[in-house]
Amino acid sequence: MADNKNKSEEKSEAKTEEKKREKIKGYEKLINRLKKERAELEDEINRDYREARRYVRSHPEEGVLIGFVGGIALGYLLGKLGRK
């Protein structure tokens, strides 16, 4: 009787250990996928950044104008919000 009880406990422990291993494998797959996506996003952001820098260097007047207009718009909005 006690022998059957020990066997059933061992089986349940083995099942829980197997479930833990499966969960760990699932988490490892998820972590690896997230790392891959992170690397892809970093590459994309770096490409976009380099492209933006090239554009601004080739069109400096437009960059200054956009910055100036953006500053005026931001100042206007902050001024309106500050009055309330």
Describe this structure in words.
With 84 residues, this protein is mainly alpha-helical. It is built from 2 helices and no strands. Helix 1 crosses helix 2 (60-83). It is elongated and about 85 Å long. The mean pLDDT is 88.
Spell the H/E element sequence.
HH
Number of strands: 0
- The helix-and-strand class reads mainly alpha
Give the uncertain stretches in residue-range form: none
Shape: elongated
The overall pLDDT, averaged over residues, is: 88
**What's the N-to-C terminus distance?**
80 Å
Approximately how much helix is present in the residues? over 70%
- Count of DSSP H/I helices: 2
Question: Summed up, what is this model?
Answer:
This protein has 84 residues and is mainly α. The chain contains two helices and no strands. It starts with a helix and ends with a helix.
List descriptors.
84 residues; mainly alpha; 96% helix
Question: How is the secondary structure organized here?
Answer:
Elements: H1 2-58, H2 60-83
Helix pairs in contact: 1-2
